[in-house]
Amino acid sequence: MKQVWLVDDDQEMCQAISLMLSLLDCRTRIFNDPRQAARTLLAGELPNLLLLDINMPVVTGLDLLEFIRHRPKWKTLPILIISAEATDADVDRAMSMGADGYLIKPVSYEELEKAFRQVTRVQPES
Question: Which fold, 2-119?
């Protein structure tokens, strides 16, 4: 069973995405604060996939994306952005920072499944 970390401060969105991920045989761990997810990574835990919202108070999903991509041991960790920010500039910025995919909220099960299958082909290094 794959472990997916979802970093989003919207509780309803977390519940909906977690349910969709359970249909993909994934165990979801929810972090409402990107700093909490970063601390867990630093402690040595690693998911099979990380889903990040962009807009969160204090530390954004892009801040966490940048933090992760600047550490060699996490360079291959698959990361999908799931955000209501839908401009081409938003997508381009996230992708240029190292995101592996970008989904626009509200995301459908079909979109999530397709992106999940594409990015989890390559497993993160331990």
Answer: Rossmann fold (3.40.50)
